[in-house]
C-alpha cells in the first residue's frame, strides 16, 4: 500500500518560498545597483529599461516582505522591535532605494524634516510601509514628491505628498475597509493599505495607537498619505 501523502501546511510552504524569493530578489537588486554605476555608458532605452526593472524588483521585494510579515503576525512570531531612530536617515534610505526610478522619471524629491527629529518605531516594518507608499506615489505623481515629518501632541506624523491626480473617490470613501480587509475577489487586493494599517495599529504607546490616513490636496494638490505613530 502506497504511503499516504503527508498533510501540507500551505501557509508555511508559501512563507518559506517567499523567504527564498526575497533573498534572490535582494541579490538581483544589488546587481542592478552595480549596473547603475555603468549607467552613463548605456543608451537611453537601456537606462529606461534598467530603471523599470529596478522599480518592479523593489515592488516585488516589498510585497514578499509584506507576505512574510503578515504570516508571522498570524503566527504571533513578529514582535515589534521598537527603538529610537532618526527620521532623516529613514527618509534618505527610502530616497536611495528608489533613486534609479525617480531620476529616470525626472521626479523631484523634497524632504521637510528636522535633521534631529527622532521617532520610536520598528525600523524594518515602518521602512517597508513607507517604501511601498513612496513607490506607489512615484507611479502616479507628475513631477515631484515631498516627504515630511514632525512631532505633534499625538506623536510622530509622517506624510508623503505628490502632485498627481490624487486618490480616487472610492479609496477615500472605503479607506477604513481597505485597511481592515483583503479583497481577494477583485484584481486589486489592497495588500499595501492593509499592511500599512496593520503595522500602524501595532504601534501603541500610553493608550494611543498608530494610524494611517488618505486624503487629497496637501502641499502639491495631489494625494497625501499620513502615518501617525504615538
TrEMBL record:
PROSITE patterns of this UniProt entry? HIS_KIN
SUPFAM superfamilies, A to Z: ATPase domain of HSP90 chaperone/DNA topoisomerase II/histidine kinase, Homodimeric domain of signal transducing histidine kinase
Keyword Metal-binding among record annotations:
no
User: Metal-binding: present as a keyword of the record?
Assistant: no
Q: Which Gene3D superfamilies match?
A: 1.10.287.130, Histidine kinase-like ATPase, C-terminal domain
> Sorted alphabetically, which keywords does the UniProt record give?
Kinase, Transferase
Residue ranges occupied by any Histidine kinase domain in the UniProt entry: 16-230
What InterPro entries does the entry give? HATPase_C_sf, HATPase_dom, His_kinase_dom, HisK_dim/P_sf, Histidine_kinase_KdpD
GO terms for MF:
kinase activity
For this protein, the record's Pfam families field holds: HATPase_c (PF02518)
Tell me the protein's name. Sensor histidine kinase
Q: Organism, per UniProt?
A: Rheinheimera marina
Amino acid at each position: 500500500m502506497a504511503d499516504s501523502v503527508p498533510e501540507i501546511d500551505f501557509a508555511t510552504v508559501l512563507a518559506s518560498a517567499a523567504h527564498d524569493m526575497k533573498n534572490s530578489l535582494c541579490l538581483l537588486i544589488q546587481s542592478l545597483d552595480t549596473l547603475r554605476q555603468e549607467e552613463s555608458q548605456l543608451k537611453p532605452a537601456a537606462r529606461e529599461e534598467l530603471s523599470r526593472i529596478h522599480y518592479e524588483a523593489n515592488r516585488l521585494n516589498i510585497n514578499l516582505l509584506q507576505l512574510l510579515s503578515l504570516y508571522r503576525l498570524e503566527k504571533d512570531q513578529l514582535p515589534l522591535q521598537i527603538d529610537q531612530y532618526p527620521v532623516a536617515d529613514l527618509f534618505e534610505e527610502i530616497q536611495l532605494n528608489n533613486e534609479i526610478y525617480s531620476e529616470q522619471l525626472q521626479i523631484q524629491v523634497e524632504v521637510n524634516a528636522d535633521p534631529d527629529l527622532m521617532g520610536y518605531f520598528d525600523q524594518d516594518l515602518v521602512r517597508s510601509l513607507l517604501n511601498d507608499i513612496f513607490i506607489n506615489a512615484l507611479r502616479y505623481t507628475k513631477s515631484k514628491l515631498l516627504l515630511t515629518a514632525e512631532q505633534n501632541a499625538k506623536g510622530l506624523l509622517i506624510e508623503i505628498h505628490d502632485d498627481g491626480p490624487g486618490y480616487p473617490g472610492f479609496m477615500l470613501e472605503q479607506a477604513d475597509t481597505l485597511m481592515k480587509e483583503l479583497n481577494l475577489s477583485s484584481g486589486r487586493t489592497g495588500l499595501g493599505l492593509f499592511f500599512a494599517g496593520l503595522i500602524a495599529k501595532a504601534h501603541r504607546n500610553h493608550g494611543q495607537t498608530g494610524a494611517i490616513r488618505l486624503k487629497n490636496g496637501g502641499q502639491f494638490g495631489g494625494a497625501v498619505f499620513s502615518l501617525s505613530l504615538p
